[in-house]
Amino acid sequence: MIDVPNYPNWITFSRNLSNPQDLPRVITYINIRLSNLCFSLCKDLLDHSDISYISFFNCGSIYFMLNIYSDSSQIALKYFKDNEANINNILIITSNFNIRNSSWDPLFPNYLVHSNTLTDITNTLNLYISSATIQVPTRYVDNPNDLNSVIDLMFLQPNLDEFNNYTIHSNWRLSSDHTPFIVKVSIFNENTQTRKWIIIKNSKKEVNFIAKVIESIKRLNTNHINSKKDLECIAQDFANSIDISWCKHSKIANITKHSKVWWNKNC
Q1: Higher pLDDT, 244 or 265
Q2: Nearest-angstrom CA–CA distance, 267 and 264
Q3: Residue 163 pLDDT
Q4: What number of helices (H) and strands (E) belong to the chain?
Q5: Which of 28, 149, 159, 142 is nearest to 100 (CA)?
Q6: DSSP designation for 130
Q7: What is the DSSP letter of 256?
Q8: pLDDT at 214 (0 to 100)
Q9: Percentages helix, strand, coil for the chain, rounded to the nearest 5?
Q10: Every domain of the chain and the residues it spans
């Protein structure tokens, strides 16, 4: 890739190789609003100039996205298959695979052997080809004697409802001969807690609260526990007394970036 455009609101990920004959042919853009997910370009498992292998974190787990350019000789796909990397949690594999097949290209009646390599890889990773909402060509040719084709594909996890299909926007390709894809991910509304009840550490309120908890423990009567129900009643009475004491001694505080257990007057 030469003179790849950079945008201030997007982070770019591509291989930086010293050999000018081995320039990468894939690049990944990540919007800066998603930077909290800690996107990173991985090179430890798949070290190939035409494979962009991106990791990110979400809800304590690590996930991966693969952007692959496979030329007419299928060099990148063969490398991928020969280096059977043990990768879990791949959400998406996409890009230009240069493989025409009647399964995804209605204008092409044949079946190419390279299709087996591609499907073997994606099936092993539990990814399956996704269907476009409207099937149109993904690559447009200038020569009127040639036919437009479908060689750009997207493989997604079938058990994710938000990743079940994508849209091909042929009117967005401008001067490019390839069309952009759009896959929508649903983001659900989340209630962010901005206030909480606290008891200041080493305060009189904390001393009184602890004293009430100790008093409630001493008042527990465990002499007549004859059933599970008796135990549950005692535990519920104890929890209720703690709740009452907590509400009495605590106060409401706003949650800020400094709302840490170690944040006190000494800081």
Answers
A1: 244
A2: 6
A3: 65
A4: 4, 13
A5: 149
A6: P
A7: -
A8: 93
A9: 25, 25, 50
A10: 10-182, 195-254
